[in-house]
Structure formats: structure tokens, C-alpha cells
Amino acid sequence: MNVAITGLMVWLAAVDLPAGTELQYTGTLSQQTKTGMAEVKTFTLYAIVVNSEDGNAQLAYHLDERGGGSWGWPERFGLIPLTTPSPKTRLLRILYTHEGQQYPLPVRLPVFESLDKLAPQTSWTDGRLEFVVTRKRKVKERDCFQVEVSSNLGRVQTLVIEASSGILMSLDERVIIGRGDEFQLKMELQTQNQLSVADLAKNRQPLDSLLAIQSGLNRTGEQKVVELTGDQLNRVRSELPRLDKEAEGTAWSRIVASVGRDLQQQQKRLDGVAGLEKKLIGQPVPKWTLKLIDGSSISDTDLKDKVVVLHFWQYRGEPLTEPYGQVGYLDFLNSNCKRRKLDVRIIGINVDERFANPQQTGSATRSMKSLLEFMKLSYDMATDDGSILGDFGDPRSLGAPLPLWIVIGADGKVSHYHTGIYDIKPDEGLKQLDDEVIKAVRRQKGK
Questions:
Q1: 39 and 28 in contact (C-beta within 8 Å)?
Q2: What's the total number of domains in the chain?
Q3: CATH code for the domain of 384
């Protein structure tokens, strides 16, 4: 996977915009084709300067994306310090799906970081990038400088910067994605306003509430889908009425509306999965035979009278997205001496439709082995073209993502069925799954 993004994510030093400065941009992503550039994605960016508790300037923002993929709502807003960032700072990015893979694309901040260096015919370097001020120009009756940014690949950005404020008026950027495919990222300032003290305070309320919800979800900022646990869903739902009221009449109402729509979809997904769980728990498992990566096979008959954990997931080298199916925690559970003594069998099942096509089996296997070599997993690995997953109840048909976790008791019946990631504490690992395994073992031993 390759994304050559030459946009520079840097931080302000000499710019002092007043709190309440409100900026709105529109942007496009276009792909180079044989006949020219073809637009594949559009986005809008809303940004407002706010002050932190210690008085330092921060940039609050939210993004709307259309076409070619999109971040889930928890990743489409944030707060960026305009001085020195913290390690937890979430960068400003859009998400684009290209040839089946999702690429985060950084977007330059709306304020230029080197205002003090802007003068006719000046130049400087920053890392591997060279900046050259090529000319003065008027844009929307504002005095601006045009800045060309180059790397060893040639010109990568053309910036138009307002001379007095450092505000980015427009961006034209060359982006290389995937296997050398060329794209053009453009962004242009549409409106700029100065909010009153009262309006700034009104905007700050929903912003703070959104940030609190975002923090409570404990997301890394790298997840590309919204997958809330039942507890998380309930917490966000309880906050939504107040959030709706706070956001009314502000620019944050659009992102809050997205939260509401997603909660409805998430609840529908959970209700559907709950139906599957109710249908399967306590029932004999369907007959299954799995092919292991060493070429041997294993079936439900081979594991009769044993407690078995099946972990259905897309074990692929690419695209690999957090939290990686939580395979690291599952591997720890498998390696736990206590579990080995209990003789619990854990099998990871790589669900990949390519295994149904002999011409594609090789590439699917190579991708899986690449991941296994990287993760060094200790439990058994099998393959499935989706048929066995379908027999157990494929949660993807309900809009629920993998992984799927199934615990089979020694009596051959399903004792635990869970879709998606577990809501866990790092020091506890897969405690919920582990508890279910122990219950199954105790039933096996008649305790």
C-alpha cells in the first residue's frame, strides 16, 4: 500500500488569529485519466479558532465528505492546537477508497505556518520540501502571495496565502495513491466570518460535548468504520437530546445529525445481531469442516467433547485496519498456560471470497500468510470462502462487521456468539470471551 502525500502537517508560529475566526472551505479530489482529471470526491471543511483554558489558540473543525468513502462521524471532527501539538492530536484528513483500499489523505491546515517568511521572491526549505514565493496576486480583493512547494518529485503544492493573516485562500496539491496513480486535491476558501462573543460561546457548547463523547469512545482515530458496543451506543444515545439542543442554529448541527443517523443504523445492526444470537445460543452447531493452512483438515467431529473458540475475521495483509480483529488479545488468551492446560482449541478463520475461485486462492493465501508472519500468531488458522460463516449466521448481511466470535461447548452447542470488537480494558484483554470459555469448561467438567 502506498500513499505519497506531500502536504505538510505543520504548526503555527507567527500567526495570531482572534478567537471566533470562522472559515469554511470546499474541496475536491480528482484522478488523472487518459482524458484529463475526473472528480472522484468532494468535501467541505468548517473551522473555527477557539482558545484553550491556558489561552493558546486551537482550531476546531469538522468535515463532510461525499463520494469515494468517508470517515465515520467520530473521526470527522476534532481540535488541533495551533502551537505545539500533543501526541494525541488528530490530524486533519479525508478518507478515500481506491481500488478496494482506504487511504487517509492529510489536508493542509487553513492557516499558513510561515507567515513571517512571506515576501516576494523568497525561498526556504523545511525538511525535504522547498518553498518559493513566486508572485503577489489579488484574490477576492485580498492581497495574497502565491507559494510553490516542491520535493524531489517536482512541484507538489501551489498555495495562495493572504499576506496579512496567513489564511489559506486556496490549495492545489498533487497526490500519488496506490500503485502510482496521480490525483489532484483542491481546496478553496468560501467564507470567512468573525463570530461575536455570544456566538462563539454558543458554538463552544456542542463542540465540548462532541469532544467529550469522542474521548469516551476511546478510538485511536485510525478506525475506518463506526462500530459501537452496546454500552457505547447507550451512552451516546443518552447524550443526543442535549447535544441536539446545544447544536441547534450552529455549524455543528450537521455533524450532530450524522451522529443521530448513525445511532439508528447501529441500533438496527445490534437488534439484528441479537436475533442471530438468540437463534443460535444453545443450539447444536452446524456440521463444519475447515481446511488449515498446513493443508490438513479439521471438523466438528475431530473436536468432539472439546471447548472450541472460532474467530471469523479477514486475516489479510492489506487492508489492515485497527484494531486488527483484536487478534493480539486472542493470541495472548491462546498462549495463556492455564487455557492450554484446559485444552481449549482456538481456531482463527480467514473469511475471503477468493478461496472459492482457484485462480484467486494463491493471492488470498499469500495475503493471509503475510499477516501471520507479521503477527506471529500461535493459534491454528483455517480458511473459508464465506460458506461456513454463512452457516453460523453471517453478521455482515445485517451491516455488522467482522470479527465474529463463537464459543462451542463440549456438548457441541453454541454457548457464546459475539460480533465485532469487544469493549475491553488493555490490562484485562478479552475478559468477556475468557469468562465465556471458563463457563464452557466448567459445564464440561460438571462443575
A1: yes
A2: 3
A3: 3.40.30.10
203 within domain boundaries: no
Q: What is the mean pLDDT of residues 358-367?
A: 89
> What is the signed CA dihedral for 408, 410, 415, 421, rounded to 10 degrees?
-40
Going by pLDDT thresholds of 50, 70 and 90, the confidence category of residue 11 is: very low
Would the pTM of this model clear 0.70, i.e. be above it? Answer: yes
The answer to the question of residue 59 being in a domain is yes
User: Does 207 fall in a domain?
Assistant: no
**Does a structural domain hold residue 202?**
no
Whether residue 375 contacts residue 332, with contact meaning beta carbons closer than 8 Å, is answered with no
Q: Does one domain contain both 62 and 170?
A: yes
Q: What is the dihedral of CA 71, 75, 78, 84, to 10 degrees?
A: -100
* Cα separation values, 109 from 9, 10, 17, 23, 297, Å: 7, 8, 13, 11, 54
**Domain extent for 141:** 3-195
At 339 the pLDDT is: 61
Per-residue pLDDT, 89: 65
Angle ∠(226,231,233) on CA atoms, nearest 5: 45
Whether the CB-CB separation of 68 and 29 falls below 8 Å is answered with yes
Same domain flag for 441 and 397: yes
Given a contact cutoff of 8 angstroms between Cβ atoms, the answer to whether 200 and 18 are in contact is no
Residues 312 and 403 sit within 8 Å (Cβ to Cβ): yes
What would the pLDDT profile of 48-102 be if each residue is shown by its tens digit? 999 887 778 899 999 999 988 899 999 999 998 877 655 566 778 999 988 878 8
Same structural domain for residues 296 and 372? Answer: yes
| Pairing relationship of beta strands 345-351 and 77-81 according to DSSP bridges | unpaired
- H helix and E strand count, the chain: 8, 20
> Do 251 and 298 sit in the same domain of this protein?
no
In a shared domain, residues 68 and 191? yes
Half-sphere exposure (Cβ direction) of 44: Cα atoms closer than 13 Å: 10
Are 95 and 38 found together in one domain?
Answer: yes
More confident residue, 197 or 220: 197
Enclosing H/E stretch for 395: none
CB 164, CB 143: distance < 8 Å = yes
C-beta pairs of 159-165 under 8 Å, 24+ apart in sequence: 159/108, 159/112, 161/112, 161/115, 161/118, 163/118, 163/136, 165/15, 165/17, 165/111, 165/115
Indicate the residue among 195, 229, 263 that finishes a domain: 195
Q: Are 361 and 394 in contact (CB under 8 A)?
A: no
Contact 173, 186 (CB under 8 A): yes
Cell 469554511 maps to which residue? 24
Residue 107 and residue 185: Cα distance in Å, rounded?
Answer: 9
